[in-house]
Amino acid sequence: MRRYPRTGRGAVAPVAAIALLASACSPGSGPGGSGELDGVELTVAAKWTGAEEEGFRAVLDEFEAQTGASVSYESTGEDTGAYLGPKIEAGEPPDIAALPQPGLVDEYAERGELVPLSGAAATTLEEEYADYWQDLGTAGDETYGVLVKAAHKSLVWYRPDAFDEAGVQEPATWDDMVGTTSSTLSDAGITPFAMCGASGWTLTDWFENVYLSENGPESYDQLAAGELSWTDDSVVQSLETLADVWGEDDLMVGGRDGAVQTDFPSCVNQVYGQEDAAMVVEADFVAAPAREAGATVGENAVAFPFPAVGEDPPVVVAGDIAVAMTENEGVPELMAYLSSAEAQELWAEQGGYLSANSEVPTGAYEDEFTQGLAQTVLDAGEDVRYDLSDQVPSAFGATEGSGMWAILQDYLRDPGDPEGTAEELEQAASGS
């Protein structure tokens, strides 16, 4: 049976002894603080753009004000690996990178391209993050990263006014959503879904939620680990389930052709800006572009849990793991700051953000709706699962124009052959 080449991810390694004085492990005492890093220049790379980038820049601005360092931000685009590869080969990696896939932590750690976590950042990870979150930044018996930005990926965002106009309620099951809710919306002249098909990762989110709910955590884990073939009947069944929506042109803005040409966050604007659709399936970070479109989160931009396809509704999470790629001056201090409750509370205030740090109070989020989402991340139980496409090798699960992204885009264009699509997924997963 095929297994993906991965290092173990068992118990988190013992935290390294603190090697820096407390004053060197955290930023200064406040804005305009110690200036201990005057003249130090640092670079951080992450995939965030738009409102997400603006929120992160507010955090970097505060670090600069407290320490005197200068931090530049580089957007990697959707394919973080493709961005970092040439940088690493040229010997010019960013000082810190936010990796959107645990699989990338494994890959870079195996090649010796990451600096193990130590000092105040390691202490914060041990003391303020649950074991579930600590494990995500671990490769083999070493810890390299901290989950600095979490995402709740089992949400369906909607416009309450559209639901009220059609006379429908939040659905509890998949059949309710694609049957009663969608058909009633359509009858009222309201297109049910905006799709973000041009951003292939959003389609993997649809698949993962359906697969987890329909087949359960054990099969999900086996599929993620390469212990279950992608041609398995369970995969074919979930693809057939997706076709309940993906196969119906009138359920999505622009039909399938329009859906596969609409990226994230343009799909969010189709719901909350243009009001062309009632719903969009995507994570909590929809909040930021919804605000940009003029919506108020918790009032006219709300979400319900991804409905149960099988017995239980799914809970899929994802996130971005900060890792150090150099040992340059200032890197330990910035890693410590990014992992801290102080920085993440500021980040939470910007919107479009969830923290996995248990010391970040839910009151840091500006509305009750987001506060509730934040609590679900902190309370993640044993049935929650990390984004499957982010667990497999990035060449298969997280590369634009190939692997899962491209295959599911093709399936969205024409969902008439689930068995053939499953075979394509298997071939891509095995590298053949």
From TrEMBL:
Signal sequence segment: 1-24
* Pfam families documented for this protein: SBP_bac_8
Which keywords does the record carry?
Signal, Transport
Family per UniProt?
Belongs to the bacterial solute-binding protein 1 family.
Which protein is depicted? Answer: Alpha-glucoside transport system substrate-binding protein
Q: What superkingdom heads the lineage?
A: Bacteria
- For the keyword Membrane, the answer is no
**PANTHER family on file:** ARABINOSE-BINDING PROTEIN-RELATED, OSMOPROTECTIVE COMPOUNDS-BINDING PROTEIN GGTB
Q: Where is this region: Disordered?
A: 412-432
Q: Does the keyword Signal apply?
A: yes
